[in-house]
Amino acid sequence: MAGTKDVVGGALQAAQIPAAFMGGPATEAGAETVAAASGKVFGDAGKAGALFNKVAAAAKETPIEVSDAMYGALKEAKALADTGAKGLPRVVTKFFNRVSDVDEELTWEEARRFYSNVSRLSSNEYQSMAPQMAAAVSKFARAFDDSLRAAAEASGVGDEYSQAMQLFREG
């Protein structure tokens, strides 16, 4: 999908360049319409990516705190799974094992990979979870975002992180 998005987005951008030179103001308006349409269809994934890269560069040395809210949601999800609730996502188990068994600080890059996987759970995965499990996983994802946002703010790029997340959600 990402490759298709790049190809189509590149074709739309390429179409705008000659159109702006060939037809004057009327064609420029058409090119602007194409640009607006491509932005609506594909979001601002490129801009979000650039912002995420800026945040990653600034925050790469900032340790990510596994907050009490994150631990609480993890423990709740694990307890639910241990008592038979359906649907504990593998990424939650992997994260729990990582923060429980490894003494190293959680880095920005590693945390973003975990968070990305948690935030990309499909609707099918959520529908296969017991309702209380889905609530615990959602609570964990929100707390995880809060920890990443705090690390970004501590690194001086909190606004960039917020903008990137907004663009990502819109895209």
Instruction: Return the string of H and E elements.
Output: HHHHHHHHH
The Rg value, from CA coordinates, equals 20 Å
Structural class: mainly alpha
Q: What does the overall shape look like?
A: globular
Give the integer mean of the pLDDT values. 80
* Largest β sheet strand count, sense and barrel closure: none
The counted number of beta strands is 0
Poorly predicted tracts of residues? 1-41
What's the quaternary structure here?
single chain
Describe this structure in words.
The protein has nine helices and no strands. It is mainly alpha-helical and 171 residues long. The protein has a domain at 68-170. Helix 4 (68-82) runs antiparallel to helix 8 (131-154). It is globular and about 40 Å long. The protein starts with a helix and ends with a helix. Residues 1-41 have low confidence and may be disordered.
Topology:
Blueprint: H1 2-22, H2 24-42, H3 45-59, H4 68-82, H5 90-101, H6 108-119, H7 123-128, H8 131-154, H9 158-170
Explain briefly what this protein structure is.
This protein is mainly α and 171 residues long. The chain contains nine helices and no strands.
